[in-house]
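User: Hi! I'm working on a homework problem where we have to compare a predicted structure to a textbook description. Could you give me the structure for the chain below?
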Amino acid sequence: MKRILSLAVVVVLLLALAVPVASAADTYPIRSDMSTIIVGLNSATISPVNPMALGASANIDYHCDSKMVSIVYDYETIVYNGVSYPRVRVARVSGYVPGTYTIEARLSGTTLALGSTTITVISSMATGGAATVTASNTNLATYGSTTQLYVPGDSIIACSVTPGDEGHFSVTNSGLVTSLVANGNYGYTDVNVYTASGKYGTIRIYAGTFPNNTAAAASPTINIGGTTQLYLLDGSTIVSASSSNTTVATVTANGLVTGRTNGTCQIYVMSQRSAGVVNITVGTGGTTTTGAASLLKSTIAVGESTYLVAGSDVIRTCVSSNPAVVSASTSNIGQVTGVAAGTALLTYTTYTGKTGSVTITVTGSSSGTNTNLPAPSQSFSTSVGKAKLLSYSNLSKVWTADPAIASVSITTSGSTTKARVLGLKAGSTTVYLESTSGTVKALTVNVEGGSLIGSTAKIASGDPDLRVIARKSASSSGSVLATLSNNVSVTIKGESGDYYQVTFKSSSKTYTGYVKKQYITF
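Assistant: Happy to help. Predicted structure tokens:
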């Protein structure tokens, strides 16, 4: 007992000695688990970075000069450098009025700030309109599993779960949702999402272990555009439903499933008293709808692009039967570009479930050279996995006659814009550079043999806020293995169609999965 008492006295003396230097800076830093909170919807937790440095939890007060925030004390176990500190005094901070506020940690009974942090409070009233929120996965099967939320073309700045669900789900300001649902239980929450442009949206995230053999479908296999009704075997009414892969199939709140593209997915359903999961397979082919979509131009030149349109409907998928003749964009669905002379069949689906195909013709000689385009004026060499940067005044567009041999893109550094050519496999192709005035220059690129296997690359989504999905198989319906941030290093292990097989590290562990080639940069 005397030993413990003596240690407490030493701690108090150390704190007393520390008081004079604390005023110069944040001597004992504190942190907030959320930099942005929403009026009336969520709160931030303020805690010391190093509880040992701040001393006994009873000696900490938290203070804000403004009365527009509420501070409520609580106690948590804080982990620092692998050591757990139980019952550390923390503050739950919520906001009444939008603004940015400074929260200070003070030695109890004094006005001396030991450390500080800031919190931004935003209004729960969105002024920029509705946001369309998507997720890498809307179903979190196990405790601790995560999913990343996205708002296309916008960045997420604040999120909150349904009030009362905080013990079962957590979400960061950037939209990373974590399941805290114990294995064996199940449920869902609606996540509120606010964006940098002032938009607001919600998305329903399910989590837990849904019972098997409690739900069924009128038909577990449907065509593209076909529908099937789900039901619970206990006769209760479905009030909420979610698809594990909305690209394959979508579902209404009462359990009506619509096939979108070929594949298999899981549909989770819930009533007021029961729940279940049903496997749905969308069969090959689907129901063809003649004339559902058409091309703006059915004949194009090499390097020229056109669009597949479907009236008031929207093109969901578009696949070229011969990518060496016509390439179909994977980032701008519906856009197709002539690669070499010939014809190809474009097969498509729409968001209303219609599917069909149209023929497109690319003009030019058998070598793929269009008479409207110049002959190559010079040539250069590269090798598989190596990139070259090409300069061209006022560069506005770049394309290649054979994207299977070399991929091309425009890269900007400061005020300088260049074409980046990456060798993909041994061979020769022509690269075209077009200026803003329409002047085109052609170059021959010779790609020397080699292999990308073993090469180191990085994730590049094209959007600083967009994460890239790594899947367990080379398919858009493959299970999500992880979501990878931009610039994460990966090693190429193989390739399968539009996917590279890659390895990457996370939390000192090595994982192997598949990432679309368009999101890999060397």
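For your comparison, note the following. Residues 313 and 352 are 7 Å apart (CA to CA). The first helix runs from residue 2 to 22. Good luck with the assignment!
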